[in-house]
Amino acid sequence: MNKFKKEIFKEYEKLRTKSNEELKRRKQEIYSLLPRTKEIDKEMAKLSISISKKILSDNNGNYESFIKDLESKINTLKKEKALILTENNFTLSYIKLHHNCEKCDDTGFDKSTNKLCECFFSKLIKKTYKLSNLESVLEKENFSTFNIDLFSQKKYEDNTLSPRDNMKRILTEVESFVHSFNRGEENLLLYGTTGLGKTFICNSIAKALLSKGKIVVYHTAFRILEILENEKFNKNLENQEENKLEYYLLFNSDLLIIDDLGTEMVNSFSASELFNIINSRIIKNKSTIISTNLSPIQIKETYSDRVSSRVFGKYKMLNFYGPDLRWEK
Known about the structure:
- Keywords: ATP-binding, Coiled coil, Nucleotide-binding.
- The protein is 59% helix and 8% strand.
- By secondary structure, the protein is an alpha/beta fold.
- It has a five-stranded parallel beta sheet, with helices on both faces.
- The mean pLDDT is 89.
């Protein structure tokens, strides 16, 4: 994890260097085309130095009127420069420093909170995904590679829609979820037996939102329980820093995908912590997707009423059914 952090901060340094070089190039371009702008910048620099010298040399503090006069001159020069630029079809932002992330100015620390920026976590997650080979999985399993023809057009059991028509309905729902994701108001419960495409759909959503720069965390329920147990009980863990970050992201990522709910060991601790995650994310308007082989009735029987009521009340439920596709291929 420390290795990744160092790599990311080096990337930020390169971004800042590149931004400064590009600004320098744009300024030279403007100076060459509009020489008066260079003269104005020099005049403003001299006036700023005069203000600093006056403040440092005047121990009595009798410099207020002097500074006001110089600041007025600086503002006049700024207006003249702005007019020259706009008259020659240049925006004022053209000669300002441009950053990839305006929240942190490519430092990794949010200017408003002085905490690690969202873009830092996004970069970190992409690096960990590369290490875990999930990136290669997402390249294979995404909306563009989804094959609707794998699903049967025949009526299945007592369901109104065929598995194919049902999957078309599900695709419409999840594509809408991705499209309107910034609202952060929607959660999804994907349920049905194994081999029906739930994990493929989860991967497709993850791929689409990662491509939009969102912070997506994807864990099995078993792995989430491990993270929770390590945070609560294993304070001397060797990779404690990594676990703390994973724990933080369970609550604060843009999207949390919980795969295979019900495969973990369910007890009072896991049920309580699951409720804590689900409830906290609902309060924060952070979207969550749960994928499970359990039916709604089994979810209610397996977990507490608090968990099931929050899920059934706040999640859009998408039922996957049909023949097991693993045997159909």
